[in-house]
Each structure stands twice: as structure tokens, then as C-alpha cells.
Amino acid sequence: MFDPLQVGFFGLFAPTAYTGGSLLEGLEPLFAGYTFSSVGDVDRYLALVSDYARIVREFEARTRGQFERGIVMPRPELDPSIAMLTGLRSGAPAILRVEPSRLAVIGLEEAHRRIDARIIDEVIPAFDALIAYLSAPAYREAAPETVGIGQYPGGSEIYQELVRMNLTQDMTVQEVHDAGHARMRSIQAQMRALLDEVGFDGDPAAYLEAVKQNPRWRAEGEVAVAEVFKRYIDRLSPHIEKSFNFMPQAGCDVAPLPAALEGAMTFGYYNGPKKEGEPGRYLFNTKNLSQAPLMNVAAINYHELVPGHHLHLASQRENKDLHPIRKTAFFNAFNEGWAEYAATLAGEMGMYAEPEERFGRLVMDAFLTCRLVVDTGMNAMGWSLEEARDYMRENAFMPEAVIASESLRYSCDNPAQALAYKLGDTYLLELRETMKTALGDRFHVKDFHDAVLKPGALPLPLVKANVEAATARILATTGRSPVRR
């Protein structure tokens, strides 16, 4: 396993969407925002272009080293990875190339030819070599049909450690798996109750099909899909101060996911501000969302932006009371647990105003809960890829393209990463309930959010300690003793 983003986001193979793909796409602002103010800046930019090529060559070197040790990317992941790399290769010149107008300030308009030559001589050949290596018969023939980290030397032990790291809790694989089944039963009961409430006689799959046929819940193309997200951003805005004492200065927005990643990512990802004055953006998969009913966009929006990832990550980076290291701290259980807690909170604030939106939230809940079952199943319990996909078809209500890409993500890309979402939010919701019980009429959700967010991302046991300390401080102001558990 390796951590290309150096945030605790461990991946199994470099040439996959959530490892190498995320790393290379994340570099685009570095090149787009580069300022040329001296002759030396041209040489430094050329060195950055060479570094970009070096990263791709290191992907190949790592892949070769794994191959020599009998660690080969599963065959179902090969073609999606090759397609992603081909897309990144095609898009690299547009990211790295410098228009003469950017160089005019130092009178070196012709320097763009040197930069173009560096791209042609180093970057494109690096991609070509990696694509050729993965496409070669020797690699493809050695690629296993089976998936999951458990099939590799030491994989089972590493997976258990990844579970502990991603959850910051001591849970066994079996406990996680069982928790997924229990959560799924609860979600199914909630879905049935919602359908009974609206007078729908069919099952959840039939209700979803009915929503699919309603043009009100469809949008086509990046502009139309972006408008759906913005509708939910605007809906929340007048209400957010009721639950939070602070908000980040950086605004938030949405934008389409780069085309090279559309085939390998399900919905998209949050891309935080890289410099002061820049908004955080959710990059959405136009292709996938244009093919599906959008009753779940509200839940995605509140997970990814405000009160989810954007509120947490942007405010953490702006927090002057935190050490610079703490400003960029990343703990998967906290980050994804908070984002899912935020999506639940949005429902409590009335943001899922219509039955279809409430159903969409339950669909997202079911989709994320599936991960607890199929991630552990494929990586530790011998489940095949098709077994996992059948479980998702039965319980996740997602399009086939989503099921295909997500099941590969769990088994071939980031084993155990996806476990953090639903176990992290459960932990935070239980903490909030404990604080509410202890404080009674002194409880305010703003105090809970301060205790969780102001220290920045932390392992969940430390979040618990901070919430308990905040509870004790509030109780001390009234002369009451903390509730003992």
C-alpha cells in the first residue's frame, strides 16, 4: 500500500483513479496558477513539467516492482485503469502547456516552445510506457480474475490494520461486516415506512423506477446538473447559522469532473481551496449524473460542501488557532464521518423537503452502508466481484456503471477506505446524543459542533474526549455534575 496524497489515503495500485488519478488531477492548479516574473521561473516551470513526467515513471516503476513480487492488478481493473491513463495522457498537454501571453511579462514568449518540447519529450513517453506495460500480454496474463487485498502476500493482516487506521477504532473485520448488515435492515425499514407514508404500494426499486420516469428529477449536461447542486446550496444558506457559530471565509461551488476521470469515479470528489480567495469545489461526474435520477443530489451536496467536507476542511485550514500541521490534518473516520453526519444533519434541518429527496438520502445511506458488507466481503471473506455486485444491485439501488466502478474502488484501489463513512457518522451521532442527554435543556447543537470541528480532524477517541470536556465545562457553569457512564 502507498499514500500518494500523503494524507492517510492508502491505495493498492498506482494507476487507478483514487490513487494516481487523484494525484495527477490535483496538480492542475499548480500549473494553471504558476506565475512567470523572471527568466528563472521558466527553468523552474520546466523542472515541474519534468517532475510530472517523473511521477508517471514512478507509477510504472512501482507497478513493475509489484509484478516482480507477484502483486498484479486484478484483470477487471486493468481496462478501466488503461482508459483513465489514456485520458490523462490526452489531457496533460492542456494542463502543462503555457500560452505565450503568460510569458509576455518577461519578454520570453518563445519559451512556450521549450515547454511544449518538454511535454512531448518526457510527459507523453512516460504515459505511453506505463500504458504499454499494463497492456502487454505478460502483465494481462498474470493478472488475477479475483479481487481483494486478501489474495496477496500479507494482505489479510494489512487489511485488518487498514480497518483500524481508517476507523480509528478497534473493530474486527467481522464486527464491521455485521454492522453493515444491521444498518441495512434499518434502512430498508425506513424506506418501507416512507413508501407507506406517500401511499406507494410497490417496493423501493419500483419507487425508484417511478422517480426515474419523472423529468422533474432529471438533468442533462454539466450546466443543468450544476444548477441542481446550486439549488441545494441556496436552500441551506438561510438556515446554516442556526446550527453553527462559524463558517469558513472561502465560498463553495461545483464544477464538472475532468473527462479523464469520468469512467473511473462514481460521483466525483471535493477539491478544497488551494489559495486564499479561491472557493472549494465539488467536481461532479456529468456523465453518470446525467444518466440517473437526481433525487440524491441533495444528500451528495450536503456531504460534499456545506455542512460537510467544505465547511470542515476550509474552516480547518483557515483556523489561526491550529498549528500548521493540524490545519491539514486528515483522519478518514473523522473526515468522511463528519461529511455523512452533515448529510444527516441537513435532513434534521428540513433540507430534504420532498419525499423523493428523503428517499434519495436513504438511497445514499444504503449505498454507503453496502460498503461495510462488500468491502470486508471482497478483501477478507473471499467474496467474488460478482457476489459483491449482486449484493449492491439488491440493496444499493445504483446504476450498473456506478456498481461497477465502486466495487473496483473497494477491492482494487482503496481497500477499507470506504468503511469510514457510516461507522464515522454513527460514532458522531452517538456522541451528540450522549452530550444532549448529559446537558438536557442546556444542550445546543452549536456547542457540539464547536467541540467537534474547532480542534480540526482527529482520531475519533480524541473527538470523544473533546466533547466530554466541553460537556463538563457547560455543566460546571450551572453547578451540576457530569453524567457518569
Overall description:
With 485 residues, the chain is mainly α. The protein has two domains: 17-145; 159-420, no CATH class. The chain has helices at 17-26, 28-32, 39-68, 75-96, 100-103, 111-135, 137-142, 155-167, 173-198, 204-212, 222-236, 286-290, 297-304, 309-318, 324-327, 332-348, 355-380, 385-395, 400-413, 420-439, 445-453, 460-476, and strands at 252-256, 268-271, 280-284. A three-stranded mixed sheet has the order 1-3-2. A hairpin with an 8-residue loop joins β2 and β3. α17 runs antiparallel to α18 (385-395) and α20 (420-439) packs parallel to α22 (460-476). The longest helix has 30 residues, at 39-68. The model has no long low-confidence stretch (mean pLDDT 94).
Largest sheet, in brief, is: 3 strands, mixed
What percent of residues are in strands? under 5%
Query: Which sequence of strands runs across the widest sheet?
Result: 1-3-2
Q: Give the tally of β-strands.
A: 3
Helix content: 55-70%
The total number of structural domains is 2
Low-confidence stretches: none
What is the fold's blueprint, element by element?
Elements: H1 17-26, H2 28-32, H3 39-68, H4 75-96, H5 100-103, H6 111-135, H7 137-142, H8 155-167, H9 173-198, H10 204-212, H11 222-236, E1 252-256, E2 268-271, E3 280-284, H12 286-290, H13 297-304, H14 309-318, H15 324-327, H16 332-348, H17 355-380, H18 385-395, H19 400-413, H20 420-439, H21 445-453, H22 460-476
Helix pairs in contact: 1-4, 3-6, 4-6, 9-17, 11-13, 13-16, 13-17, 16-20, 17-18, 18-19, 20-22, 21-22
